[in-house]
Amino acid sequence: MIKRNRLLNRPPKSLEERYFSEIRPQLYENHAHHHQYGVRKGTTLAEHLDSACQFILTVSRIAEVPENKRPLLLAATAVHDLNKLDPQERKVKTLARNKDFLREQLEKGCVLPFVATEDDFELVRKLIERHSGHNVSDGARFLPEDPNIERWAAMLTAADLFDLGIPDEKRFRKLETELTVAFDRSCKLFRVRLCEDKGYITALLLGACEEVLQKYGLHSLAIFPDGELFEGEALPNVDLTKEIAAVWQSKIDQVFGNNIERLVRPTKDGIKVTQQAIQQNIDEVLVNVEALLEKKKASYKSEKIAKDVTKWGDAAGTEALKKAAELGLIPVSNSEEFAISEGLKAAYLSYREAGLSPKEVWDKIATHTGISEQQRIAIEPFNGQYGRPLFAAKAAVKGIDGIKEALKESFQLRTESTQTSEEIEVSEEIVAAVNRMVNLPFAIRLNGANDLNAYVEANPRQRCSLGFTSTDIDELISDNMPPGTKVQAFSNRLPGGISAEPKRQADSIAALAYQLMAVGANFPAVKKQDPLYLHFSLPKGACPEFLRIWRDYIDELVATNAEGGPVAADELQLYRDGILKFTANKVVGFALPKRREFVHSNIVTPIGWGDANASLALLKSLRLGLEISLSLDIGFPFTLSSNLEVELFNDIYGRVEGIPAALQPLLGSGQYQQRQDAEKILERLRCIGKLAISVASIQKADDCLYDLSRACVRPIELYYVLIRWALREQDEPNFRLVWSRISIPLNTLLNLMPSNENTLLTQYLKESAAIASEAKLWGSSRDKRTSLVEPFAKFTAAVRSHKSYMDLDLMFAALVQQYHTRLDRIREHGVKKTKYEQIKRYYAVLRKLYEEVYQSRPEKLLADQKTLEAAYLFFFEEADALLKSKPNNESVEATTSL
Fold first, then answer.
1. What's the rounded Cα separation, in Å, for the pair 571 and 425?
2. Which candidate, 407, 264, 288, places its Cα nearest to that of 347?
3. What is the DSSP string of 770-807?
4. How confident is the model over 617-643, as pLDDT tens digits?
5. Cα–Cα dist 753/748, whole Å
6. 0.70 exceeded by pTM
């Protein structure tokens, strides 16, 4: 089994956290390769035990099992299939009563610390023995026992049945029967299913469903990639679609409300604050209002203000102007007073939004800003919105502070008036989207015919660029659409067309989903390339606590970048040690969600890689996705795609969309049915990463990684890529040292690659290199690359100069004689006759290579010359290291001379 990371490194605080950080990883280490049969075919024992443990954690919390008993239920569940844990496959009852065996299995499952006393052991034994449907078969039935044992045994039975591979209808009936006993009340199950997943907006919809259903007494029992399973004493008998749509709408509004600067707007009528803004952060709203007042101050123009003063003064009349002047109500005359007047106008507009009359508004403004009662009466003739602020600015002695207090009170009044509203207005579009996106058991409406008609009858110029064609189509510019969205009608390129950029048509919900992603994810400030999207999904039947723990982990990652940008992995630690350590980054990395509620059954995580090409971005994204997906304490299915929307999956572990042909030998088909398939791909990518960091600097590791990945089309070319990078990074590389670094990951990678036609080629190259190492067949220096490959280079040179009419026997005989002469000339004491036989044997192997692999065709061999020389060099270093590791190693020549 490959080494897997653990992501949850903080000390566990609850039983659930302890399960996911300590117990669950042990289950997968012990039983990940123990496959099951029958109705559970296709799953491993680890997956079954994990599913049962998560289920028991949820059910025991809903049933309010005492906190000192819940760990015992978890311990019994973690080892409940004792017969599958026993090599002899004895019966559960026999094994449960074997205390030594039971203790051993509890210890292997990391749950033995929960079972501290003899009574604890007895309770665990009873639960395990009774979970499989057996009656009480020992003397305990004649003795008084805790009546809760029957309920707890029913919980364990339900947990065991939860992942049965049978139709849902039949499985749910079995679960309802057991849970009725466990909860000591009626229990009904129903499942909310997603029809499509659009990222954050879908997560908010599931959150709205959960919120509404909990209000009706239902509990979340388990989470699936395509929805959620709920249980309750009775199912709702009313259509809750509109109520869910209202909550969903409010959640969407709250997200966009976080962009306060967009919701506090300067207009020709004054500064207006939207309802969405005050629902989010009142302090932030006041900061934005104050900033806008500073801008107003900077834009003060005395001529324009004089015209406004004259206009609204004349409207009030001469008598009103005279009385106002006597009380110090003098018109605005400088930038400071103009800013105060705009602040008074903003407070007036906000109070009016709360439903107050103009008189009530100015009574409150006067109280907060220090305007006296006489002055308040004197400005009554002036226009409440435009005239009074211009004449009351000097009288507002509390200045900006008084205006801020007035704004705060107005915000509070507006919030209260919203909360007392009995019914929220929801658009028909949102209600229709709920019906379309989620399958609710109390609202089954088939609108397929309407959707088909909308598609058939749509004007070709209004076909959707995003989403499906419906009656709710928006025309949007490129900034409000996903990167790369195609344009359907190029009106700006037609005679008489508009000069602006072409518009893109989009289904309104699909466009809203992308805009929600653009606002809600921590994208880098500079976007240099379209992102890839990693779609993670909680495993089938995950407990709601798992969702909370996953959200906590995402929050911790987001906090890594205090400035709110992306989070990137430390590539040196990742490639060299396989360790995931995240750091803040400004340009590349994960654009994690800003809100917890964006994470539900699925999470969409955009990943940006700056200027990296698409293939390299795919490789790096997949490596990170697999490291997280296959982690022992989090691990879940994934999809890597360039699309925000992907098909919901339940039957496969992982999927990669858009793998180029050059990377398919390394990454496979992109459909990873089982966890083991994904493990194999991760191991290959880990080997590639170690090779890249071994021969290239960290600054150039990505380029080397890309070259190595492409070379996997023909694995023997890996040797040439490695030697080329070693020579590129160092003038005189030590190939013995290079081989010591790359040998393990390279051989591991080659063993993981599918068998290929180069097996015979590799065999002959290794055999010739072994002979050369043993007989010391190299040139004038042992430490130079050209010298080490000299005998092989003589062979390729002979092939290059060989004429078709010449006999191969002659060519190889000449090779042997010439190289023997060469060694005799360059060696200090010459060479013996034995060396001639070794050279002859060496070139005999290369002749087999030439004839059997290349069919004696010189053009084919010469096309591979550089690749063959690189592979030969590394095979030589491998053979030399093996030779030196043998005991009593002595040179062949020394033995011969004796």
1. 50
2. 407
3. HHHHHHT---S-SS-HHHHTHHHHHHHHHHHH--TTS-
4. 999 999 999 999 988 777 788 999 988
5. 9
6. yes
